[in-house]
Amino acid sequence: MHDGCVPDALDEITWPRTTERLQQRVVWGVRLALVVAVGFSVAFPGLPQFEGKGMAFRAPFYLLPMAVVPVVWRWRGRRSPYPYLVDALIISPFLVDTLGNALNFYESFSRTDDVLHFLNWVLLVAGITLALLRTTLPPLAVWTLGYGIGGLAIIWWEAAEWLVQELGTAGLGLTYGDTIGDLLLSSTGGAVGAALALRFGRDFVRGPGPRLHVEAGAGETRTVRNEPLSAIMTTAIVSIDRDQPLSEAYQALRGASYHHIPVLENDRPVGMLSSTDILRLVYDVEGSDDKMLTYARLSVHHRRRDVRRPRHADGGGHGARRRRVAR
Question: Which residues lie closer than 8 Å to 42 by C-beta, 6 or more apart?
Answer without folding.
Answer: 55, 56, 59
